[in-house]
Amino acid sequence: MKKLLVCGxxxxxGGHLVKRLKKQGHWxxxxxxxxxxxxxxxxxxxxxxxxxxxxxxxxxxxxxFDEVYxxxxxxxxxGYIFTGDNDANLMHNSAxxxxxxxxxxxxxGVKKIFYSSSACIYPEYNQMDPANPKCAESSAYPAAPDxxxxxxxxxxxxxYLAFNKNYGLDIRIARFHNVFGPEGTWVGGKEKAPAAxxxxxxxxxENGFIDVWGDGLQTRSFLYIDECLEAVERLMESNFIGPxxxxxxxxxxxxxxxxxVMKIANKPLSINNIPVSYTGVRGRNSDNKLIKQAxxxxxxxxxxxxxxxxxxxxxxxxxxxxxxxxx
Length: 327
What we know:
- By secondary structure, the protein is an alpha/beta fold.
- Helix content is about 40%, strand content about 15%.
- Strand 5, helix 5 (about 150-165) and strand 6 form a beta-alpha-beta unit.
- It is globular and about 60 Å long.
């Protein structure tokens, strides 16, 4: 049994990670600003607090954990990251969290630490063609992310790599590509595209329409939560530091994503593409050559499988909360 710390345990990926680690028989301490919104955490300890506070980080990193999983950050979907209204908080809060955690982890002799970076670190200039985005790990430089969120993630990657180089801290870095699934944010402005579209379809009247931001031709790939966690586990068990992409290569346009959800829901809706100024890059898709080479593994489940499970969960949430949403 390992002693593990999960930072960001009240979030979507962190919440699922805690469940997986507990099923494997480990002792887990979860930490976050908030409890998980949709289910009770099975963590042995769940401590509420602000990881931007140095003193709080010293309190929760009070032993040489076997593994620390650092997923905590200030984040959200396109409606939060790309408007420009939250740039200062995105950079300051997330950078502070990583600076605090890496310093204390090194002081306490943590045996291994995982850092969740993001596909948002990739240069905007390589993602202008929706049919042919370039997101190989080696393409990150010359750096030119399209958001301050991406810049902070890139800085923190280098922070963890520097502690590995100078202090020998055993690290693993993964660049997540649009992870989705049940028990994630689905309303309120921080939800990501799969959840937002599932919600819109679930709420739409029969033979009605849904809004899709932009022209709907922008492309992305989406990774189901179970495969994300399997990849993290394989990375942690390997000798490969990274950074490495953890994502799917099944690229679709947002209009295609909406059509898939409509088919799952058996709702023949129309798509109303609405102009907005913050849709992000035109194309993004995980390049999985390195993960196949380094770990002998890559995601294999079709997008429709994960979308079906996610839609069913969000449809249930909409049904329960409909009177509130209608007010």
